[in-house]
Write a structure and sequence with these properties.
- Its cofactor is NAD(+).
- Keywords: Glycosidase, Hydrolase, Manganese, Metal-binding, NAD.
- By secondary structure, the chain is of the alpha/beta class.
- The chain has 16 helices and twelve strands.
- 49% of the residues lie in helices and 16% in strands.
- The strands form three sheets. The chain has a six-stranded parallel β-sheet with strand order 3-2-1-4-5-6, sandwiched between helices.
- Bound molecules: nicotinamide-adenine-dinucleotide, 6-O-phosphono-alpha-D-glucopyranose and manganese (II) ion.
Length: 441
């Protein structure tokens, strides 16, 4: 089998060790020749790089491993770039979450004003990275899960329509794992139909390979428990605040019991509740910094100090195997069926062709082919149209440097109560993002 060369962009990410462990676990399916880390923060990446170097030398010395901040070195010769950068890092995630809360609006990484702000920071560096990849590795595919994926995907559609970039999200993967547990199946046994936008969608069918429909059974379970399950299957979403999110799916289902909701809909259906629940002084960014970030970097330091990874290991990003499934689909033309964020082009029959939607696709060597999901009901269609227009306005605001469109994007967001609140919020966001948004200063 061919061996592949992979660069992980955002090498200093808290997810990097989990992805590397997952790659090690999948070498029989996806052999690796070269593995590189690339980041623009040398200090942050060095700690993980040094620890992973020790670990890889012990576990798989045949892999040529290195880490760099030089894009030419990072991309040259690569087949795949797994991208998970966070522009502004946790420091700015914290601002994205806390500034809206000051105005009584939900503060969230990818939804509402925080998500729009994160998008406005991310478009430029993501496009720059795509250009670097194309310059140094013209045949390389970028499997991007950097957030906010919806806005990044729209920016790619407009600014780099021909680039080999595939945008994906792990939330439906994690939730499908929970569903498979509810019906006592393996995730791979289940085939879904789904429509929506990123972090904004619904399952309309969950069948096994024989065609048995499990949606009613899952619905009965979710009506009682949300997606809360007993055994740890959805490893990435286990913290107490995530458990609350899985539970809340019960109230999302109640709004339209025909379909199974994506957990992120809670920010649009119950924003007032979410604001009441939030601690404006200690948000998810703080939880992650005190939890995942501390634990990953202290494991790295421990490995470096002891000079061995024996006995202290990074945990495996097990549900991140979908990234290998996607890479394999491209590399081996496997025609894997996966949810992807793609241009609609008729997949949802009564929705705009040029909207970036999240739907099931068949993936082969040429990328994804969308599967038709037919017509969707007016309720979901109207919600999606509002949200996709927010995302489009954000991208237009970025390209044109338009304060007006930025304000409109915030005003249109279902999470923001008025144009006045939107404007006050925007002015605070601009102040906090001075370094990132010279066009608005
Ligand atoms: P993190 O801050 O730990 O890591 C991000 C890394 O990106 C940092 O080391 C940072 O220095 C680096 N970076 C920032 N800008 C860069 C640039 N222009 N070029 C190169 N490197 C750059 O963040 P994290 O919590 O580990 O998350 C990483 C990303 O993955 C985030 O965007 C997060 O939202 C995303 N994510 C997405 C999904 C999904 O479902 N799509 C799932 C999990 C995480
Ligand atoms: C899910 C979403 C990602 C998001 C992540 C945040 O996995 O699909 O898009 O980045 O949650 O998780 P965190 O643990 O950082 O709050
Ligand atoms: Mn996601």
């Amino acid at each position: 089998m061919k061996k592949f060369s992979v660069v992980i962009a955002g090498g200093g990410s808290t997810y990097t060790p989990g992805i590397v462990m997952m790659l090690l676990d999948n070498l029989d399916r996806f052999p690796i020749k070269t593995l590189k880390l690339y980041d623009n923060d040398a200090e942050r990446q060095n700690e993980l790089g040094e620890a992973l170097d020790i670990l890889l030398k012990e576990k798989e010395p045949s892999i040529e491993f290195s880490y760099t901040t030089d894009p030419e070195e990072a991309f040259t010769g690569m087949d795949f770039c797994f991208a998970h950068i966070r522009v502004g890092k946790y420091e700015m995630r914290e601002q994205d979450e806390k500034i809206p809360l000051k105005h009584g609006v939900i503060g969230q990484e990818t939804c509402g004003p925080g998500g729009i702000a994160y998008g406005m920071r991310s478009i430029g560096p993501m496009i720059e990275m795509i250009d670097l990849m194309e310059k140094y590795a013209p045949d390389c595919w970028m499997l991007n899960y950097s957030n906010p994926a919806a806005i990044i995907a729209e920016a790619c559609r407009v600014l780099r329509p021909d680039a080999r970039v595939l945008n994906i999200c792990d939330m439906p993967v994690g939730t499908l794992r929970r569903m498979s547990q509810i019906v006592d199946k393996e995730p791979k046994d289940l085939e879904v139909r789904y429509f929506g936008l990123n972090h904004f969608g619904w399952w309309t069918s969950v069948k096994d390979k024989d065609g048995h429909e499990y949606l009613p059974q899952i619905r009965d379970y979710v009506a009682e428990n949300g997606y809360l399950t007993q055994i740890e299957v959805d490893t990435q979403h286990m913290d107490p605040s995530w458990q609350e999110t899985h539970k809340k799916a019960k109230d999302l289902l109640a709004v339209d019991p025909r379909f199974l909701p994506n957990t992120y809909l809670k920010y649009y259906f119950y924003p007032d509740y979410e604001v009441r629940q939030a601690d404006a002084n200690y948000t998810r960014a703080n939880e992650v910094m005190d939890g995942r970030e501390k634990s990953v970097f202290s494991t790295a330091r421990d490995i470096i100090e002891r000079g061995t990874a024996e006995g202290s290991n990074f945990s495996i990003g097990s549900h991140a195997t979908f990234i290998v499934d996607l890479a394999r689909a491209i590399a081996f033309n496997t025609h894997e069926r996966m949810l992807m964020i793609v241009e609609n082009n008729g997949a949802i029959a009564n929705f705009d062709d040029n909207a970036m939607v999240e739907v099931p696709c068949i993936i082969g060597s040429d990328g994804p082919e969308v599967l038709s999901q037919g017509n969707i009901p007016e309720f979901e269609r109207a919600l999606m149209y509002q949200q996709v227009t927010v995302e489009k306005l954000a991208v237009e605001a970025y390209i044109e440097g338009s304060y007006q469109k930025f304000w409109q994007a915030l005003t249109l967001s279902k999470t923001v109560p008025s144009a006045e609140v939107a404007k006050n919020l925007l002015d605070d966001l601009i102040e906090a993002n001075q370094k990132y948004w010279p066009q608005f200063n």
